[in-house]
Amino acid sequence: MIKDWEAKYSEILKEFKYDKRKDRESAIKLDKILKESKINQKIQNLIKGNTVIVIGSGPSLSYAIPKLKKLKKVIKIAADSSLKPLLENKIIPDIVVTDLDGDKNSLKKIAKKSIMVVHAHGDNIGKLELVNDFKDCIGTTQTRPFKKIKNYGGFTDGDRGVFLASHFEAKKIILFGMDFGNRIGKFSNTKKSERKIKLMKLKRGKLLLEWLSTNTRSELFTTSRKISGFEKIPYKSVDIIIT
């Protein structure tokens, strides 16, 4: 677990009024569902020392897809809300970070192709059985890690993907479709009634990435909106960075 994560988690619990006991209950259930595996080692083999792309479902994803289609050999980590448009464009991520709130059909389509990093929290206890459909799966929590459940840090699917890449010592991490602004991407399928809380989550995710930038050895870049600690780059510079 990343140093000082518990203090960040306490801030999240307070701001969003989450129940720590329910988060723990969800993690315990997920641990019971998961089988013993060597997925942790498989993820490390993919990420360590390599350039990794992390894909979110922000407004800029539409513009990013043509570039992503050309980056066939780069390791890709996708937040599950970005999965549907990625699959429609024949972009198969190596790893999907999900709390199971995304498009179920898209998750099932790649259930045997991508490594699934499933996050357990108090609001998705009833969805965890979906994990049984996944071939390669690892479980995460925001509480203390235990048994088969890990804690790499992060809050939303997108920023958890960045924390994951950092934990496994990616040489470089490049963000696509991760805007963290006042607009919500069309692919996120956020209802009007959920807009306020979604923007709060994006703000918290951005703050966590700014904090991570002071605690990581990975070189950080973004093709989306400026994030403190990340170098803002145009798409045309991506090819140079990944070489």
Radius of gyration: 16 Å
Low-confidence segments, given as residue ranges, are none
Number of domain modules: 1
* Overall residue-averaged pLDDT value: 92
CATH topology: sialyltransferase cstii, chain A
Estimate the helix proportion, in percent: 25-40%
Treating each run of at least 4 consecutive H or I residues as one helix, how many helices? 9
Descriptors:
about 240 residues; alpha/beta; sialyltransferase cstii, chain A; 9-stranded parallel sheet; about 15% strand
Description:
- It is a single chain.
- The chain is α/β, with parallel strands linked by helices.
- The chain has one domain (5-238): sialyltransferase cstii, chain A (Alpha-Beta Complex).
- It is 37% helix and 15% strand.
- It has helices at 5-16, 20-33, 39-47, 61-70, 83-88, 104-109, 157-167, 195-212, 238-242, and strands spanning 51-55, 75-79, 95-98, 115-119, 136-140, 149-150, 172-176, 219-222, 231-232.
- Strands 6-5-4-3-2-1-7-8-9 form a nine-stranded parallel sheet.
- Helix 5 links the parallel strand 2 and strand 3.
- The chain is globular, with a radius of gyration of 16 Å.
